[in-house]
Design brief:
- It is a single chain.
- The chain has 3 domains: 96 residues, Translation Initiation Factor Eif1; 173 residues, P-loop containing nucleotide triphosphate hydrolases (Rossmann fold); 200 residues, Rossmann fold (3-Layer(aba) Sandwich), CATH 3.40.50.300.
- 34% of the residues lie in helices and 24% in strands.
- It is built from 16 helices and 22 strands.
- The radius of gyration is 24 Å and the shape is globular.
- The chain is α/β, with parallel strands linked by helices.
C-alpha cells in the first residue's frame, strides 16, 4: 500500500512519499484538487484594450520542491482535511505529524455562561466544535449570536493571546463593547488595533488592514468575523503570516464568492466544521421569520453589453423601476414600519431620493470629489448636505438601531455589521445574484420576530431576469415564504 507522511510546520503542510508513490505523482494528485479559477478585475488600460473588465486567473494552492530531503509537496494547512479525503479515495495511507510547539490549555468550561445557553443547543454545539478542532469555519445565520459566541470563547481561554479580526472599524468598536460587558476582559488585557489606534493586548480586536500591528506572531487563537471577506489577496497574505495559532472563521455565507475564491478561504481557515441552517434557527425562535414579496418590473431590454452600462441604465437610472421602489417604500413607511432601501451604489440612492424620496437620508461610505461633481452635473445632488460624513453615518446607525430613525436608503455599508432589531421592511434594489449578498443583505431582517423582504423580478431584460431568478432560488432554499404565487415554483 502506498504511504505518505503529512507534517505541519506553521501554516503549511508538507507531504512526502514514504512508499509506493513518487513525489511527482503525489504532487500531480494534489495539484488536480488544489486549484481554482479566480475572477480578477483588469486595470483600466487592460480593460479598455481588451473590452473586458475582468479576467480569469488559474490559482494553485500547492507547490512542489525537490531537494536533499526528496520530493515534497507543500500546501496550506486549511486543506488538510481535503487532502486526507483525497488520499483515502486513492487508497493511499498517511501519517500526520504536527511540528508546531502550540500549547493551548483546555477550555475553562466553568467560566462559560451556561445559564444563557440552556435553551441554545446550537451555540453549545458550535462551541464544542471549536474546542475540539484546530481550525474551521462556523456557518450560521445573521443574528444567531456570533458575538456572544466570541465572548464565550474569550471566557473559556482566560490566559492565551487572542486576536479577533474584522474588516470594519465600526464592528471593532461593537465587539470591544461586548467583550467588556459580557466576557469581562480586564481593561489592561483588552486591546484595539484599527486606523490610528494601535494598542494590542492579550485580547486584541483588530481590523484586517491593521493586523500586522496586533502582534500576530504571538497569537494562539485567531477569530475572523465575516470570513467570506478574507480571501481578498491582501487580506489573505496578512492572515497567512499567522503561523502558530488555531484559526476559526464565522459567516452566514462562507461559500459563493463571485470571484470563485471559496477554496482560498478553506486554505486559510479549513472547512466548515459546524453549520446551522436558517430553517433550524428560525424553528428554534432564534432568528426572524422572513417572507419575500417579489415585484415584477416591466420595461425594455437594455441595449448594452458592458456590465456597468447595463446596471447604470437598467438599475440605477431606470425611472420605472425606481418609481416602483419609492412607491413601495413610502407606502410601508406611511404605515409606521421601519423601512430600509438597500442599493449598491450612491448614484442609485441619489436618483431615488432626488426624484421621489427627498426626506430619506442616504447612508454610504467615502465619495470621491470627481463623483460629487458628476452627481451635481446629473442634477441628483442638489445639496451637498445630502452626503454622509463618518460622524453622520455613525449617528444614523445609532438612531436606526434604536428605532428612532424610521426610514433610510443605504449602500453596502449597512449590509453587514449592524444590529437592526426594529427593522420591518427591507427593499432590496441592488439586482446582484451572488449567494453571499443574497444572504448578507436580507440578514438585516433576522434580528426581529418577522421581516418583509421586497425584491424585484426584472423581466424587462433577460440578463437581469436571470439574476432575479437566482436570488429567488436562494431565498426559497433558506425556507423563506414567497408571497407571490407566480414565483413559488423552481422555474421563475
Amino acid at each position: 500500500m502506498s504511504e505518505v507522511l503529512l507534517r505541519r510546520s506553521g501554516n503549511l503542510i508538507e507531504a512526502s512519499p514514504q512508499a509506493g508513490i513518487t513525489g511527482a505523482s503525489l504532487y500531480e494528485l494534489f495539484r488536480s484538487t488544489f486549484k481554482y479559477s479566480r475572477r480578477v478585475r483588469n486595470d483600466w488600460r487592460t480593460a479598455r484594450a481588451s473590452g473586458n473588465k475582468f479576467r480569469s486567473e488559474h490559482r494553485l494552492l500547492c507547490h512542489f520542491s525537490e531537494g536533499p530531503q526528496g520530493a515534497i509537496t507543500y500546501f496550506a494547512a486549511g486543506l488538510l482535511y481535503r487532502a486526507r479525503i483525497l488520499l483515502e479515495r486513492y487508497q493511499i495511507g498517511c501519517t500526520y505529524q504536527d511540528l508546531r510547539k502550540l500549547v493551548i490549555p483546555p477550555p475553562r468550561i466553568d467560566l462559560l455562561e451556561m445559564d444563557k445557553m440552556q435553551s441554545r443547543d446550537d451555540q453549545l454545539k458550535a462551541l464544542a466544535h471549536i474546542f475540539g478542532h484546530d481550525m474551521g469555519v462556523i456557518e450560521a445565520p445573521t443574528a444567531y449570536g456570533k458575538t456572544f459566541l466570541i465572548c464565550q470563547i474569550c471566557r473559556a481561554y482566560p490566559t492565551i493571546p487572542l486576536i479577533i479580526c474584522t474588516y470594519r472599524k465600526d464592528v471593532v468598536d461593537s465587539i470591544v463593547d461586548r467583550l467588556r460587558s459580557e466576557a469581562h476582559v480586564a481593561p489592561n488585557e483588552l486591546g484595539v488595533v484599527r486606523g490610528g489606534m494601535k494598542s494590542p493586548a492579550r485580547v486584541t480586536v483588530a481590523t484586517i488592514d491593521s493586523l500586522e500591528h496586533a502582534h500576530p506572531e504571538k497569537c494562539r487563537l485567531f477569530l475572523y468575523d465575516e470570513v467570506h471577506e478574507a480571501a481578498a489577496d491582501k487580506r489573505a497574505k496578512k492572515i497567512a503570516r499567522i503561523r502558530d495559532s488555531r484559526l476559526f472563521g464565522f459567516s452566514a455565507s462562507p461559500k459563493g464568492r463571485s470571484d470563485g475564491a471559496d477554496l482560498a478561504i478553506e486554505a486559510l481557515f479549513g472547512p466548515v466544521i459546524y453549520r446551522l441552517p436558517y430553517q433550524d434557527a428560525e424553528a428554534a425562535g432564534n432568528v426572524a421569520t422572513i417572507t419575500v414579496d417579489v415585484m415584477r418590473v416591466p420595461g425594455s431590454e437594455i441595449p448594452y453589453d458592458d456590465d456597468t452600462a447595463q446596471f447604470r441604465y437598467g438599475i440605477w437610472r431606470n425611472p420605472i423601476r425606481n418609481r416602483i421602489i419609492a412607491s413601495i417604500a413610502a407606502e410601508h413607511a406611511a404605515n409606521n414600519r421601519q423601512v430600509l432601501i438597500m442599493v449598491d451604489k450612491v448614484e442609485h440612492g441619489l436618483f431615488i431620493r432626488n426624484a421621489w424620496l427627498p426626506e430619506w437620508p442616504i447612508v454610504h461610505g467615502p465619495v470621491q470629489h470627481e463623483q460629487i461633481s458628476a452627481f451635481q452635473n446629473l442634477g441628483i445632488l442638489p445639496n451637498k448636505s445630502w452626503l454622509c460624513t463618518p460622524d453622520k453615518r455613525e449617528r444614523y446607525r445609532q438612531e436606526f438601531e434604536a428605532g428612532k430613525m424610521r426610514f433610510a436608503i443605504a449602500t453596502g455599508v449597512w449590509s453587514q455589521g449592524v444590529d437592526f432589531r426594529h427593522l420591518d421592511v427591507l427593499v432590496r434594489c441592488d439586482a446582484r445574484s451572488s449567494s453571499i449578498p443574497n444572504t448578507q443583505i436580507p440578514g438585516r431582517l433576522s434580528r426581529g420576530k418577522t421581516g418583509l423582504l421586497v425584491d424585484f423580478q426584472d423581466s424587462f431584460d433577460d440578463r437581469f431576469k436571470r439574476r432575479s431568478s437566482s436570488r429567488i432560488r436562494d431565498y426559497r432554499a433558506k425556507g423563506w415564504s414567497i408571497l407571490n404565487k407566480e414565483f413559488e415554483s423552481t422555474e421563475v
